[in-house]
Every structure is written in C-alpha cells, then in structure tokens.
Design brief:
This protein has about 375 residues and is of the alpha/beta class. The chain has 12 helices and 9 strands. Strand 2, helix 2 and strand 3 form a beta-alpha-beta unit. The relative contact order is 0.09.
Length: about 375
C-alpha cells in the first residue's frame, strides 16, 4: 500500500472469488495507477471464500485481504466497504476485465463535479470482441438501464457496470443491502432516489481469461436486478394499476348498463367483454395493491397511495366487513339460483358476471389495502 501517516483518502475495493490467475495483476495495476495520482490510498481485496491461492497472491501484490463469509457479489463489496477507510471508494472486478489505470480518472470526475457516484460506462466506451455476451449487451443491460431511467428519472447508459467510484458518506442513504449481483442496480436506484448526482465516463471492457466458471447467471441475476428495481418503484405499480382499472371500468359499465351492441360484424359489451373487464380489473387492483405495499413504509408515500395508507382502523374494519358481506351475498345468490335450477346451467350469466366483477375487483383492492396496512404497522 502507498500508506502515509494520514488515513487513506481513496480505498480501492476488489471483490474476489477464485481469481488466482488475475488478482495479482489487478492489484498491481491499481497500485501503479493510484501511486501516480499522488493521493493516499489503500487496496482491499474482499475475498468471498476462494479455494485457490487468490488471497495469498493478493497479499503478495500489496493488498489488504478481508474475508467475507456471506456469499455473493453484493455481500463481498459490502464487506470490503466496511473495512475501507477512504472518503472515496472505487471498486472493480478481480478478473482483469476493467482497466484500473482509469480509476484516478473516475475519482477526478467525482471531485471536480461534486458527484456522488461516477460509473465507467462500457456501452459508451469500447468493448473487446467476446468481452460481453450479445444478450447482455443488446438486451439485458439496455432494458434494465432504460427501466431505471424511466422509473427514477436517471440519465445513465450502463446500469450493470462494475467499475465505479463513489463518496463513502452517501452509501448509507442509498439503502443498498442486496447480497447478489443486483447490488449494482440497487446502488444506482438508491442514489437517484436520494437526488444524488451520478456521472458516467466511457471505459474499455477487456475479455476475461475464461479459466474459471462464470459468476454471473444471465436469467437468475437478470431477474434479481428486475425485482430489486421494481421493489423500489411503487409508482410503476400504482399508476399502471389505475390505468388498467380505468380500462376495465370503461368496458364493464357499458356491459352492465347497455347490454350487447353490434358495430358491423363485431359484438361488443357482451359476455366476453365483461369477462375481459374482470381479468383486466383484477390485474389493475393487484397492481395498485402492490404499489400500496411497497409504499407502506415510505416517509413520503405517493399522493395516489396516501389516502389508502392513512385509513383509520374503524374505516378499514368497515371496508373489510363490507367486502365479506358482499362476497357472502354473492355466494348466497349464486347458490340459491343454482339450487332452483337443480344445479344445472344458470341462465343469469350477465348478473353473475356483474357480481363477479364487483367481488373480484373491489375484493382484490380491499385485501391489498388491508395487507398494506399490516405491512405499514409491522
């Protein structure tokens, strides 16, 4: 380490799992880059249970090695962050795919622009042939990145970049705690929600040595990224639920009031339209419910959710009682009609579908409100 009498200003954290072929090279590359920058620094290798000589080689190259028992990319990074002393933390992978000589450049942009995080963008830079799977390059990363930009008003191009510098004091505000690869997206979402400035610098991505099993699982980790993004975006559920519920009502009400109508060869507002509205209404009510649950513990819930989340216990009890009575009445009506027809086919299809619509849509939304209240108080 390039240690002085002061605490290191910059901490370089490298998560590692069985990277004996490259870890020493990466540590030396980082040491050389930051030695030339003139800032006090330290290099920490967060070992995630390597069974090869990664730990010994990292120490021989001049890094401080900390053992992280909890498995996963995010867990390894968090273990390294906890051991770091620097005001600025830069991290990158141990497989030599990132060029650590660009590390001081990321730190410079962080300081000069008073940013909270600076990320190296592979998609704005150069990607060596075979360095990134085509599925990741043209589908996975762009789709997840655009989803983050839409939901959280970001302007980034590469949400999955694993080469970043950030200010240590901001990390606690981002509420990033995932243990897996999704930690990368969680940091970005947290920073955007906190109103922090994120910048990008074009970087090159090199092809790895391909001598060990890949740590990334395309579909499993892609789904984890998606889930962690959506879990922080109640507005995506609430607003889409309102749209679906509005569409459902616009079809259901004419079905109930006007009855069947024909426009040329098309039959509208008939039984099939009402069945369609039941399905759409159910999904709309469920989406609103998920938005309520996600927003339940937020200090500033969405205006659309605040009314339901601030219902009193008495009002909530009335809603649930009314729901149970409505379901009981619906079941009793259908049962009586069915009995009168000797348990044969019921000829009150429109009435049955109308009651089914009210029960399913209102019932789903009411149960969602109830569980969001439980979650809020839990």
């Amino acid at each position: 380490m390039n240690m002085t009498q002061t605490e290191p200003f910059i901490s370089v954290v490298i998560p590692c799992l069985n990277e004996a072929r490259t870890i020493a090279l990466v540590v030396r590359e980082a040491r050389e880059a930051f030695s030339q920058s003139g800032d006090p620094f330290e290099i920490i290798v967060a070992d995630n249970g390597s069974s090869d000589r990664s730990r010994e080689l990292a120490q021989e190259a001049g890094a401080k090695v900390v053992a992280v028992a909890a498995r996963g990319y995010g867990a390894a990074l968090q273990g390294g962050f906890s051991a770091a002393q620097g005001e600025i933390i830069l991290f990158g992978d141990a497989d030599a795919t990132y060029d650590f000589s660009r590390g001081p450049d990321l730190v410079r942009h962080l300081r000069e622009n008073n940013a909270a995080m600076v990320m190296g963008s592979r998609l704005k830079g150069n990607i060596a042939p075979g360095a990134m799977p085509l599925l990741h390059r043209y589908l996975g990363t762009p789709v997840l990145t655009e989803l983050i930009n839409i939901l959280f008003h970001g302007k980034i191009t590469d949400c999955n970049s694993g080469f970043r510098a950030f200010r240590r004091k901001r990390l606690s505000r981002w509420r990033a705690h995932s243990s897996g690869m999704e930690f990368a997206s969680e940091m970005i979402v947290g920073a955007l929600q906190a109103g922090d400035l994120i910048l990008e610098v074009p970087i090159a991505l090199r092809k790895d040595h391909g001598q060990r099993a890949a740590h990334l699982s395309t579909w499993r980790d892609g789904m984890r990224h998606l889930l962690v993004i959506l879990s922080r975006a109640p507005q995506g559920f609430s607003y889409s639920g309102i749209v679906l519920l509005g569409l459902s009502l616009s079809v259901a009400l004419p079905c109930m009031i006007l009855g069947p109508r024909r426009i040329g060869p098309l039959a509208i507002f008939d039984f099939h339209s009402l069945i369609f509205s039941v399905l759409v209404g159910f999904f709309g009510a469920q989406a609103i419910s998920y938005g309520l649950i996600l927003d339940a513990k937020s200090p500033a819930p969405l205006p659309i959710n605040r009314f339901f989340l601030e219902l009193s216990e008495v009002t909530l009890l009335k809603i649930m009682t009314g729901l149970l009575l409505m379901i009981a009445g619906f079941a009793g009506f259908i049962g009586a009609v069915w009995y009168r027809h000797g348990f044969s086919n019921i000829h009150f299809l429109r009435t049955s579908l109308t009651m089914l619509y009210v029960s399913v849509v209102v019932g789903s939304l009411s149960i969602g409100i109830f569980f969001s209240q439980i979650h809020r108080r839990g």
